[in-house]
Amino acid sequence: MTRYRQVLAVPGMASLLGVSLLARTAITADVMALTMYVVLGLDMSYAAAGGVAATLTAGLALGGPLVGRMIDRRGLRAVLLATVAVQVVFWLSVPALPYGALLCAAFVAGLLMVPSQPVTRQAIAAMTTAAQRRAAFALESVQGELSYMVGPAVVILCSAQMSPGVVAWGVGTAIVIGGLGIALLNPPLRAPGEADAGGATERPPRREWLGPPMIAVLTMGFGTTTLLSGVDLAIVATLEEADQVSWAAVVVAVFGVASVAGGLMYGALPRPLPTWLLLGSLGIVTIPAGLAPDWPWLCVAVVVTGLLTAPTLSAVADAVSRLAPAGVRGEVTGLQSSALSGGFALGSPLVGVAIDVSVPAGGFAAAGLAGLAAALTGYLLSGRRRPARGRSPLSGLDPARTSGAEPCGAAPRGAAPGKGLPGTEPSTSSASNAIQG
To answer: pLDDT for 118-141, tens place per residue?
Structure first.
């Protein structure tokens, strides 16, 4: 726990994680709140509710890089206040909007959602040292798991006791309070040694940072959430076949608790593990989960999967932070959020098709294979640009040992992560090591 105490002792870190948890929990619950409103408030079908959820998710996926780029250019506080204003208008108007208008408004709300998750990741990269960063991102991934466990469940419970329109207002209020809290904290998004990247002239060209190493990490992030979204559906399908669907909430809760435990254990490890190895292992252990005959065995199966979930997400976030130059860190973390949102959107239909054409166990197989495919793609992409001499850094078992004093190939403080010193070519060794860690 020493590593976590050091991270929480960083000035402003504990308050940032606390406020961000509120905002992320509310944002995680927004789809469920809109679903409950459409089904219960408008008395429409679940398919109609899915349409609203899809437009909101599409807005989130497209808006991540847009909002991140605005943060790079205009600064954090101005962008936060602008997105908070959009959320105030949207959530206040939800109970008064007809279905067609709600579809359009949900897309805009997703496009300009309060960027609590990307901002937290940017701030972690700026506020921590290389030695602290893995533990900090482990806490961030645990925060994400807690938000997914709490947010939708609270909305469902509240919808059974009060008007769905009031519940929607409550979710919107929490999003607004979280966004205003982050704006009030105004955490630094640049490390002390990094130059101010507020001017457009200091933004590095996209071709310098959006190369195979970055694409590899984004691909693995996409594959991770594709797997996780599919696992949720496969759990329900497996228990429905066993006539035990009422136990689905217990299995999902066990899954979440195991993920939290795995994230905390991973952050305390003395050395990182390669991102592709974590994702590949996650895919492998997911495939046999479909063999569980009933809910107790399924709980055992998802514990193994859960232990690797938060570590994989943490490794992806850590690698992105090391590869992102300071001048485009907002845009890069926005791309990361878009990749994660895209994976969540694809996972359920992909696994649903696999279940329909085979058996519920096929859903776990499809989710696991999707993770394996993303891990293999990430590994191959990250190894495309190798140093002229010596073996590829990906072949090393200990990334910290191959990268000098800074673990995982991190750039020196004051230099852009994943890049060399000014006037030099980007370091492929550092980029590959970032993907490993």
So the answer is: 999 899 988 988 888 889 999 998
CA torsion through residues 328, 330, 331, 336, sign: positive
Please state the separation of Cα 351 from the chain's center in Å.
Answer: 20
Of 275, 349, 269, 310, residue with least CA distance to 53: 349
- Which two three-digit tokens encode residue 141? 């991934």
Amino acid sitting at position 183: A
Written as six digits, the tokens of 18 are 């606390």
Angle subtended at Cα 143 by Cα 415 and Cα 183, rounded to the nearest 5 degrees: 65
Contacts for 380 with CB less than 8 Å, ≥ 6 apart: none
**pLDDT, the chain, mean:** 83
Structural domains in the chain, CATH included, are: 13-190 (1.20.1250.20), 210-386+393-437 (1.20.1250.20)
Helix extents (H) in 242-328: 248-267, 275-286, 295-323
Residue 101: the pLDDT is: 94
Quickly state the pLDDT bin for 426 (edges 50, 70, 90).
Answer: very low
Which pLDDT tens digit goes with each residue over 149-175? 888 888 888 887 888 899 999 999 999
Give me the pLDDT at residue 134, please.
87
Alpha helices in 327-403 (DSSP H): 329-357, 360-382, 399-402
CA neighbor of 320 nearest in space, from 265, 378, 368: 378
Counting every residue, how long is the chain?
A: 437
Closest CA to 220 of 110, 137, 324, 342: 342
CA separation for the pair 380, 374 (Å, rounded): 10
Reading the block at residue 242, the tokens are: 């066993």
What one-character DSSP code corresponds to residue 205?
A: P
Q: Model-level pTM?
A: 0.76
Phi, psi of 370 (to 5 degrees): -65, -40
Phi–psi pair at 119, nearest 5 degrees: -65, -40
pLDDT, residue 437, reads 52
CB 87 within 8 A of CB 175: yes
Comparing CA positions, the residue from 1, 229, 240, 20 lying closest to residue 116 is 20
The residues, ordered by sequence, that sit 6+ positions from 327 with a Cβ below 8 Å of its Cβ are: 72, 195, 197, 202, 203, 204, 416
